[in-house]
Amino acid sequence: MEDEQSTLKDNHGTPAGKWTATNSTEEREGSSRVLVKLTAKAVKTDAVLAERKATSGETAGFPSRAAAEEALVTNEQVALQSADANPDRYDYYLAWTRPSETAPEDRGPSEDGWRFQARGNEVGRVAETLLTGVGRRPTPIVQYACRELGVERSALTFWQGESFDQFQTLTIETEHSWQPDGVFAIYDVDEWKAASEAVDTEWESDGGEIEEYRAAVWRARERRALRRIYPLEVKHDSASFGRHQREAMHALAESDDDRVVPLLARVTLDELPQHYNVRLRAGPFTDG
């Protein structure tokens, strides 16, 4: 995951890398309407905006940015933010704007607790953690695999890594550099066991070093039991792609190895708290 430029209060994305949309905002302003997405957090700041979204949907069209600002920027809590670097059809997002944090000198004692807004990178990390930091079997990935393969959960076993380096049977090449946020391998349980037992039988007769044995087991499992490899890119809500991420994921999706299925996971966190509290205390720590 590259830097996420959205917050728990945002329902929009801003450039995370230097990827540039095919048609710039200026080009589209000169030839057609300016399209604006009304984000969920922004419309909550004004009843007029909420009514507009309820009656007309989340997309609003205007002849220019100035016309969009005049109609939509109804209070100091919202602003138009460019969507040029995002892979969608919008020119701008009507986004909730972040109020400034309380200055250190204006806060009370740190031991009493300080309140902070969740920032963009923090939100992005929370979204990523939900899918990659809670063990090797995150529920969304498990259920997606079951649906895609048409099998029960008990028929599959899962393995989580950080790259493709562990998969010796893969021969995929791409000119684009991309480090997935996680790589999930899905194996057929029965074939997993059968592959392991076959190597065990050969091992008993041939002997050898333990590292050679382990490598042989994994090669056998990949050849016989591997059903899917999901390289995963996690984005908070509509955060944009970083440089080469889109191209690399597309290249993998078009590869000859149909076991490799790149996944883009967009995680929304609207129902999580918008702020967090921290109590800081320096030592000595003798009172628990």
Q: What distance separates the N and C termini?
A: 38 Å
Stretches with pLDDT under 50, minimum 5 residues? 2-31
Shape: extended
Derived from helix and strand composition plus strand pairing, the structural class reads alpha+beta
Number of DSSP helical runs:
9
Number of domains: 2
Care to count the β-strands? Answer: 10
What does this structure look like?
This protein folds into two domains: 25-96, no CATH class; 121-267, no CATH class. The protein is an alpha+beta fold. Strand 8, helix 9 and strand 9 form a beta-alpha-beta unit. The protein has helices spanning 25-31, 40-43, 47-56, 65-72, 120-132, 139-149, 189-206, 210-224, 245-253, and strands spanning 34-38, 59-62, 78-82, 92-96, 114-117, 156-161, 182-188, 226-236, 263-267, 275-278. The protein is built from nine helices and ten strands. The strands form three sheets. Strands 2-1-4-3 form a four-stranded mixed beta sheet. The protein starts with 24 loop residues before the first helix and ends in a 10-residue tail after the last strand. It is 33% helix and 19% strand. The model is unreliable at 2-31 (pLDDT under 50).
